[in-house]
Amino acid sequence: MPPITAALVERLQALLCDADGNLFPSEEPAFVASADVTNRFLAAHGIAERYTAEELRLATTGKNFRTTAADLAAAHGVHVDDLAAWVAQEREAVTSYLAQVLRPDDEVTTALTTLSGHLTTAAVSSSALTRLAGCFTAAGLDELIPPARRYSAEDSLPSPTSKPDPAVYQHACAELGIAPEQGLAVEDSVPGALSAVRAGCPTVGNLRFVPVAERAERAAQLRDAGVLTVVSSWAELTDLLLPGLRHRPAAQPSLLPAGGAG
User: Given Cys at both, which of 18, 83, 196, 240 links 201, Cβ 3.0 to 4.6 Å?
Assistant: First the structure.
């Protein structure tokens, strides 16, 4: 795909941010809590395989627990009709743990504060809204992306899904009243990037919270997924966008979130 151009920046109305691993470093600690629930789920269904937190992260980053559990069960020939109780257990465990360990990140806060002067900021995530609420509060981002502009593939859609399905990005754009090409998506994972690209959103890959040893491979994977460019930090993204945003025509309509977060 072509790089970010002045014409693209001029038409942007919203910054659509993936949450986990993008706005806060939640991927690694989330899998610490999730691995325990995942392993209990596998044992309950007669599956001998067990995962460490790191093995689970490497195997399933970008997917929510509902999809992960179904995929792991299916890989062992097990069909699970109802995952609701397990989804609730995993959500409670992860939300509680993340609320304890996450802290505000000055670089993210500065970037969102700066960019929100030009674009409507929103979160587009595979995670549940309750998990997002705990993370946003712990990371000090409640005012920058309030609950009404958080969209969850688990809770905001008629039927729960997960990235790389484009449904959550399509939903977010519809709720914000923009065409997909007016929303710049920022994603750290391949499933997330595929979700945004398939929805028609110009997309940037962000390596800010990707482990250093994995960055080169992740960058290549994100480019293969169709992102316009890959940045190493929120500061780099701000520097990339801000000159064009500052030189846009003065009369840029402001967006009002439609329909709330549910």
Answer: 196
Taking only the tens place, the pLDDT of each residue in 17-75 is 999 999 999 988 989 999 999 999 999 999 999 999 999 988 887 788 999 999 999 99
Same-domain pairing of 150 and 114: yes
Q: Which residues contact 250 (CB under 8 A, 6 or more apart)?
A: none
Would 205 be classed as within a structural domain?
Answer: yes
Quick one: residue 95, left, alpha or beta (phi over 0 = left, psi -120 to 50 = alpha)? alpha
Residue 155: give its domain's CATH number. Answer: 3.40.50.1000
Nearest CA-CA partner of 182 in 234, 119, 224: 119
**Rounded to the nearest 10 degrees, how much is the dihedral formed by the CA atoms of 161, 25, 219, 198?**
20
pLDDT digits (tens, 9 = 90+) for 53-67: 999 988 887 788 999
